[in-house]
Design goal:
46% of the residues lie in helices and 19% in strands. It has 2 domains: 100 residues, no CATH class; 69 residues. By secondary structure, it is of the alpha+beta class. α1 packs across α4 and α2 runs antiparallel to α3. The strands form 2 sheets. A 3-stranded antiparallel sheet has the order 1-5-4, covered by helices on one side. Strands 2-3 form a two-stranded antiparallel ribbon. The protein is built from 5 helices and 5 strands, in the order βββααααββα.
Length: 191
């Protein structure tokens, strides 16, 4: 099960600066990112060295898929580029003695566009072949939602989330002035 915790802003205090995945002492901060439209929210999260490395580790299946995808993208790009070269250099598309040059230029451009498009389409699929340990480390904490005032984090470990919530709500209570809420809703007037 997972638990969601909402904090003010994008700065969070983590309990004992412990790794969010394995609870060992955190040795480095990893930026987790959420993009919503044109807005980007980043939160620095403590991870130990092992878990930080685990987040970027690739499984054997993922590496094989990426290699096969790149090889297929190259073959498709070469086929599309060669077909374009043949069409453009036979004299119908570009008349004259330099049609081979324009055919080569156009074929190369088509090959690059096809390769880039295929690579961008296939690359996200490689994430489906991550190992279970890597997926668990990536799901340890994620940004589920945010707005200009708050950030909602989702934790895989409910106990860690409860400690995180206590630490951050205590911090929020200390930040508020004694007279009322820290943020005005705009309905108050100065007299």
């Amino acid at each position: 099960m997972s638990k969601r915790v909402t904090i003010q802003g994008d700065r969070a205090a983590f309990p004992g600066n412990a790794c969010v995945h394995c609870i060992k002492p955190g040795t480095q901060e990893v930026q987790i990112v959420k993009v919503k439209g044109y807005a980007v929210r980043k939160v620095a999260v403590p991870f130990c060295d092992d878990c930080a490395q685990l987040r970027s580790q690739k499984s054997r299946r993922q590496i094989l898929f990426e290699r096969a995808a790149v090889a297929n993208s190259i073959l498709l790009a070469l086929a599309a580029g060669a077909r374009t070269y043949i069409f453009a250099s036979n004299g119908q598309a570009f008349p004259g003695d330099v049609s081979w040059f324009w055919g080569l230029l156009l074929g190369t451009l088509v090959a690059l566009i096809v390769f880039g498009t295929m690579y961008l389409l296939i690359r996200p699929w490689a994430g489906y072949f991550r190992g279970p340990e890597t997926q668990a480390a990536l799901r340890a904490v994620t940004i589920k939602d945010f707005d200009w005032q708050t950030t909602t984090l989702e934790f895989a470990d409910e106990e860690y989330a409860a400690q995180f919530e206590r630490v951050n709500h205590k911090k929020d209570d200390q930040d508020q002035p004694a007279g009322g809420p820290a943020i005005s809703n705009g309905t108050e007037r100065e007299t």
